[in-house]
Amino acid sequence: MKVALVGLPQSGKTSLFAALTGTEPGREKGGMRLGTVKVPDARVDKLSGMYQPKKTTHAVIEVVEAHTPHKDERKANKSALDAGFLNLVKPMDAFLLVVRAFDEEGLNDPRADVDALLSEMILADLMLVETRLERDALEHKKGKPGMPGEERDALDRCLKILDNSQRIYEDPSLAARPELRTYAFLTARPILAVVNVGEDDIPKPAAEVLARFRLPVAGVPTFACCAKSEGEIQAMPEEERKEFREMLGVREPVLDIMVRELYQALGLVSFLTTGEDECRAWTIRRGTPASRAAGAVHADIEKGFIRAEVIAYDDFIALGSEAAAKKAGKYRLEGREYVVQDGDIVHFRFNV
Ligand SMILES: Nc1nc2c(ncn2[C@@H]2O[C@H](COP(=O)(O)OP(=O)(O)O)[C@@H](O)[C@H]2O)c(=O)[nH]1
Ligand SMILES: [Mg+2]
Question: Which one, of 61, 63, 54, 46, lies nearest residue 272 by Cα?
Fold first, then answer.
């Protein structure tokens, strides 16, 4: 999964990037800072402790800071959503709007920043839709067939929604239409917001802090963090982090919150595989059938799928072993249509 940090200059994107990715130095590519984060999953750690595998693999999320503004851009407070940006973020699965709320003089207006960023994203999509529809109308005039009717219909619907200052994502069936895939509309993807608060706000209940800023905006999952402090904590040796979090009043690391919100917004779940070689978490869309989930592990396993042996993680832990789970009837053989659940421990049987 790939997620882009988007925000006005000086909102705290680089600070948040550091808080999420820790001390890993970001790689730079085409104006983007790239990093990966391990998806925290206590289940993987627990299984790894039991099996002592050669390898333990967590799911990962790629995080990019989409644009590193130049000095003169910062002064002009120019938006980060230029043409270069639009190209760079095409492969992203979701956007995280970073808004500034840490000014001590109370000069923050994170609500206005969220609104402004959403408007810009809507405008970027609107311009794309209008350009394509105009070009199509011209082709019609010249007697050419133009785009397929399905595609024009989808674009017409996008035009209506965007003209109404709404995001394409707000109409899920439209956002999912295959005719729109190549357009890579910004607002067809989940958008979340992170309110970058000052230290004083850290220990306060999140809902209260957000309400003070008239947040969240409807349909935009929003959470608060203090990117700078969390970055400092992340740079500490692991055994010291807990103590500093408690001292500052950080209830939950921003990485954990972000992962939960992203999985929720994107409809993702994790299943687990175990063994002496590797314990691992795999990320799939909620509702994925077993045969397709097998494809996440290896294309050959999907092709040669026979059955999935499944034990729910909680049953496995409660009973203590595969043998005990079998005895208690918690070990199931499932076919290719079985919908894999979050926390399923799965062994695939397959033919090569
Ligand atoms: N006090 C305070 N300063 C912050 C916080 N987050 C970022 N900053 C500062 O704001 C400035 C801009 O942050 P940066 O992460 O570079 O923003 P970017 O331009 O969006 O990448 C830097 O000087 C940061 O140290 C925060 O939570 N509290
Ligand atoms: Mg930056």
Answer: 46
Residue 57 to residue 46: CA distance in whole angstroms: 12
Structural domain including 167 reads 117-185
* Same domain as 210, residue 75: yes
Residue pair 66/5 in contact by the 8 Å Cβ criterion: yes
Q: What CATH number does residue 309 fall under?
A: 3.10.20.30
pLDDT in tens, 288-328: 999 999 999 999 999 999 999 999 999 999 999 999 999 99
Which atom in ligand 1 lies closest to the alpha carbon of residue 5? 20
273 lies in some domain: no
CB atoms within 10 A of CB 328: 12
Strand ranges, E, within 250-331: 268-273, 278-285, 305-312
* Residue nearest atom 12 of ligand 1, based on CA coordinates: 10
Ligand 1 shell residues, CB under 6 Å? 7, 9-15, 102, 196, 198, 226-228
**107 within some domain:** no
Count: domains in the chain? 3
* Rounded distance between C-alpha atoms, residue 225 and residue 234, angstroms: 13
CA 21 – ligand 2 centroid, Å: 14
Q: What is the pLDDT of residue 296?
A: 93
- Asked if residue 278 is part of any domain, the answer here is no
Closest-lying ligand 1 atom to the alpha carbon of residue 7:
20
